Amino acid sequence: MNEIDINYPFDPLLVERLATELQLRIGTLPRVEVYYLHLEAYAGDVLQCLRVQPRSLSEISRTVRAAKTMKLTVRGMGHASGKEKVIYADRFTVIVDCCQLADEPRMELVNVHRDGDDKDTPGLKVLAGVTINELMDYMIDHKVELYQSPDMIPGIGTIVGNIVTASPGVYAPVSGALGGCLADEVIAMRVVDSYGNLVQYSDPHKLEQCCANMGTLGVVYDVVLRFREMTSSLVEYDFQTWCKIITHESLKYSFRHNDLTELIYVPYNHLQPEESLRKDWMPFQDEVIVRWTKRLPTIYSEDLDSAPRHRFHIIDPFTGPDQREIVSYPERTPHLLGRAYRVLKSKLRHVSLESQFTPWAMTCLAPPPSPLRMIRFAIETSCSMDPFFKFIKTLLEALMYMIRNEEGEEACHGLNLFMRVNFTGGNRSAKVMGTGSLNPTEAPGRRLIVHITFAHLMRSCSSEDWCDLVSRLTNFTFTFIPQSTLHWKSEWYTLQKLIQHIHEKTAPRTGPLRFQMCRADREASPVFPGVLPTHHPEAMPLGESIEAEH
């Protein structure tokens, strides 16, 4: 085969030539295709790279070995990616999309002998490509649950993608979770290394480096998670104004005693039809949905009881308002969202204080009806939560200023936002995120992490309006909250500021990962950007991750 020089001057057909050569070196399967990543922040800007969708372990190994002979970088990706797809991919990247893996079994209960342990540890083994919804169904059928629940806000996602991107969980430390993200619950992991070999890692220190690697290590084939027997949880809904939440002690009490504490905020809900958004809207008078869950004691497995599964939509698809109204008449957005909130409040009142199977209770928010514009921040606060309350005050004032558009003549009617807030403890595996990282001897409850998500319900406003709002929120958060980080961004704006922020947060925490944002040195690290030392002489750099979505 002809050797391809990657330093060749710009060639518009270079990626196609690379795809043809890589296919020759792999063989028949998996098929190599030219993959296009559309960067929404830049109109018409498309990133070209290579992609394969292996259906078995042998196909992953063949791809990695073939890519190594061409000195190409290998990375993973799942259903969707956030900022990582822009930072890591280039024309010389081979994306391994493991969502189509068909190996059996996809999930099973196993016993794992961990390095340094005298006895086996029970765990739930999950194949790369298993979606969050698949896992929920399996847990209900087999009467088990995880100590930390993956977040469900996008409505899509794989379990391995949730782990390697350090997506936040939802459980507070009182629930028994080891940390604030699902990656903290991994007890073993198997990855395909740069030699195409399958290597297992179960040492806790190496797992902390492997789990939330943001794609800098190898291809994750499967993971084993801690689990427990399934329980039921009592789900309670309350409705409080922001003023009451900020000045009352109920939120502090809830975090200390409940497994889950969640805030869901749909703005404009106190506005009356005759009132004006610019003159009369005060976000501190808006109501917030407060959701609490608490596990119920179970003596025998037959005592488990659950009401029928309830999944609620922010905008109910049956009772409305009609989503087409929001798109067609953006000036009516405040009153339509107020009506949607009142419908939602009425429905939630009827299901409050019901017991649900715990996996259902953790995933009752239904995905939005349209492609999601979303931005999520993680901020670190104290257990007194005073820094969080101060942040919310400043944030609501800034949000009011932006939506009222006091710099211009017209209010931003098209910004049909909702906000979601989750509280977790610190994390051990998500060190690259730079926020909430625990010391080895520190308990998860010593640090309180607040995960704040802003999302569009419908894409009715222009991309420029959303870009302006997100840029302001980003600048505001990074300026006023030192212990904060951007965790997810559906569209990549304020690129240089974010890259600088990520560099600052990750530089002192990367350790052996060598967190790199530009293309890796192809001679020093032939396949994967990161290298993790291991006692296996035949398995040096280790696996790369699936940048799946969350």
UniProtKB/TrEMBL annotation:
Residue ranges of every copy of the FAD-binding PCMH-type domain listed in the record: 42-230
Membrane-spanning residues: none
SUPFAM superfamilies per UniProt: FAD-binding/transporter-associated domain-like
A single MF term (Gene Ontology): FAD binding
InterPro entries in the record: FAD-bd_PCMH, FAD-bd_PCMH-like_sf, FAD-bd_PCMH_sub2
Annotated protein name in UniProt: Lim domain binding protein
The species this protein was found in: Echinococcus granulosus
